[in-house]
Design brief:
- Chains A, B: This is N5-carboxyaminoimidazole ribonucleotide synthase.
- Chains A, B: Catalyzes the ATP-dependent conversion of 5-aminoimidazole ribonucleotide (AIR) and HCO(3)(-) to N5-carboxyaminoimidazole ribonucleotide (N5-CAIR).
- Chains A, B: Belongs to the PurK/PurT family.
- Chains A, B: Pfam families: ATP-grasp, PurK_C, RS_preATP-grasp-like.
- 2 copies of one chain form a homodimer.
- Chain A is α+β, with helices and mostly antiparallel strands and 354 residues long.
- The first copy, chain A, folds into 3 domains: 9-92, Rossmann fold (3-Layer(aba) Sandwich), CATH 3.40.50; 121-181, 2-Layer Sandwich (Dna Ligase, domain 1), CATH 3.30.1490.20; 187-353, ATP-grasp fold, B domain (D-amino Acid Aminotransferase, Chain A, domain 1, 2-Layer Sandwich), CATH 3.30.470.
- Chain A has helices spanning 17-28, 58-67, 80-87, 96-103, 105-114, 128-138, 165-171, 227-243, 277-280, 285-293, 320-323, and strands spanning 9-13, 32-36, 49-51, 70-73, 122-125, 142-146, 156-159, 177-181, 187-195, 201-203, 207-212, 215-221, 248-257, 260-267, 306-313, 329-333, 344-353.
- In chain A, strands 9, 10, 11, 12, 13, 14, 15, 16 and 17 form a 9-stranded antiparallel beta sheet that branches. A 4-stranded parallel beta sheet of chain A has the order 3-2-1-4, sandwiched between helices. The first copy, chain A, has a 4-stranded antiparallel beta sheet with strand order 5-8-6-7, sandwiched between helices.
- In chain A, helix 1 crosses helix 10 and helix 4 packs across helix 5 (105-114).
- The radius of gyration of chain A is 20 Å and the shape is globular.
- The relative contact order of chain A is 0.13.
Chain lengths: 354, 354
């Protein structure tokens, strides 16, 4: 295992709040970060360098690769052509396979099922006829999603009855889709798992997530899980990372159901549901990711506090003056400017028991 | 109290590790930092902007002031001429009086004594004759220091007997000096105190410091103090900040002696002996300083863990590979390149009881 010397530069594809917090974590370990981001880059406020260029700009991609020692990413929808070029120039961690799988819901479900893991029942949908057949076979309600590019509730629609099928299909504009059967789950938890270059795996304690309008609102640790469920969740996450020869942090979202744990989704990056680790662990998910990507040993991610992480979405930031005065409360703002509905503006970690 | 809106820019004079950690803290609150530093600037790796220019460069100082909303500093020896210019353009927090007092050991001691606080016995020394007279009156051993610009053991010499006086005086090259009488102290502690724009004061729990070769090696919390000593230390620090109408974080170094607490030194900035707050508090000294400077309310600095902070000086960084694997240990590296003897390369916070 070769570790990146201090003073090395880590390239990060994507300049949002995840890149911002990754860059800060990298600085703690003596590294610099170079952000590549086509749009506005809150991460640029705390980065050594920022390249503002589209992912189609080959010259900028080459210059970026030349200036960094290793490349990672804060979001999974980087175009394949950009990745092809970058991969020929510098190591990309986590690897392309993890990205390819998580970029496509059908690849993801197939990969998980092949590993012997449970998911929601699903069917590929490429036409209105497919959708009718899938609805018949899986039953309704079900959720129709584009196979690619959806996040935070975008690109998906809930189907409650067969009458809604034509409109739902029309809304997808001919995109390749997947219909996911309804899962009656008790709760949703996620495991933030890390794997180092030498294959060690370490998982943070699972957090319990509450979503609203398809967007994560809170993560609470500890989650309501039996000891057996907790160890199942962690083993299952480790199996995914090992199968992918993964290097870095991954978010693994799970449904807790009467028939066991189902994998909802995997995200090959630091994850919103892991923000609580900033207040509850000696080494947080951001530093854990940087350690893995840099070839360093994983750090001590044991949980020492109970924490509730709450996202500040849109006008939630108006509560900041009050939150700044609250006890046991760490406020994290992303420097994004004006709030918009649905926009993640920051988050708060509240320690509920130290 | 007017608070700085998110997205505002805080100017920081000095680009060392303190500026680096201040910039990171500012980003958590949605602010950008612009660093002004004549030399190498580790803070630049995580800053929005860096100006590399001498403090004598009026045009650069003006451009810097024009680009920021408020100015603070990470070290107290900024030349007066630069401060005069900057102060005419933008608010400087903490204020000039705090800077002026702490820049000169005689002003500092006089200010503290006038406040009714104890210090080491001292005398101003401007000639070899002064030094002889002072040694007679204070007794030896004693410590001869330049009144200005000394830190980390530089610009000072211990006088054990009168025979050493001519050489000691000669070594000072005619600089204005102070002779400080020897203090038989039980221990050295420091209080990291913060005062907001509206005059609220909050102090972190005192830490106990161990120096070697004039450089801080470790700070341990809790310090060995009786409850009365602890509250005396905090009240005394608060008195200093109030007397100066101070805004920001100050480090107040104290000697614990049989005849009470003596003030050794005050530093009008975040302080090395406050680095433990990164591991033991919801809001650390860096964020507390930024909050004060930005006109925000002070945060919850209550201590929730026992911590030992250890500085990594010179070749201590060779221990980093081992430290990265240690339990309950947070490693902070400053990105300074090659280690040199006496150079602060990073620090480690070890939680000893959570």
């Amino acid at each position: 295992m070769t570790d990146l010397p201090q003073g090395s530069t880590i390239g990060i594809l994507g300049g949002g709040q995840l890149g911002r917090m990754l860059s800060v974590a990298a600085s703690r370990l003596g590294y610099r970060c170079h952000i590549y981001e086509p749009g506005a880059a809150p991460a640029g406020d705390v980065a050594y360098k920022v390249t503002t260029a589209p992912y189609e700009d080959e010259a900028s991609l080459r210059a970026f690769a030349a200036s960094v020692d290793v490349i990672t990413y804060e979001f999974e929808n980087v175009p394949t052509s950009a990745l092809d070029l970058l991969e020929s120039l510098k190591p990309i961690r986590p690897n392309r396979r993890a990205l390819a799988i998580s970029q496509d819901r059908i690849s993801e479900k197939s990969f998980l099922n092949d590993l012997g893991l449970q998911t929601a029942p699903w069917a590929a949908v490429n036409s209105e006829a497919d959708l009718k057949a899938a609805a018949d076979s899986l039953g309704l309600p079900a959720i129709l999603k584009t196979t690619r590019l959806g996040y935070d509730g975008k690109g998906q629609v809930k189907l409650d009855d067969a009458a809604a099928i034509p409109a739902a299909w029309a809304a997808m504009n001919g995109a390749a889709c997947i219909l996911e059967g309804f899962v009656a789950f008790d709760r949703e938890v996620s495991v933030i798992a890390a794997r180092s270059l030498d294959g060690s795996v370490a998982c943070f304690d699972p957090g319990e997530n509450v979503h609203r309008d398809g967007i994560l609102r809170t993560t609470t640790v500890p989650a309501h899980l039996t000891p057996a469920q907790r160890s199942d969740a962690i083993l299952l996450a480790a199996r995914i990372l090992n199968a992918l020869d993964y290097v870095g942090v991954m978010g693994v979202e799970l449904f807790v159901t009467p028939r066991g744990l189902l994998v909802n989704e995997i995200a090959p990056r630091v994850h919103n549901s892991g923000h609580w680790t900033q207040a509850g662990c000696t080494v947080d998910q951001f530093e854990q990711h940087i350690r893995a990507v840099a070839g360093l040993p994983l750090g001590d991610g044991n949980r020492y506090a109970d924490v509730v992480m709450e996202n500040l979405i849109g006008d939630d930031v108006l509560r900041v003056p009050e939150l700044l005065k609250a006890r046991d409360t760490a406020v994290h703002l992303y420097g994004k400017g004006a709030p918009r509905p649905g926009r993640k503006m920051g988050h708060v970690n509240r320690i509920t028991r130290g």
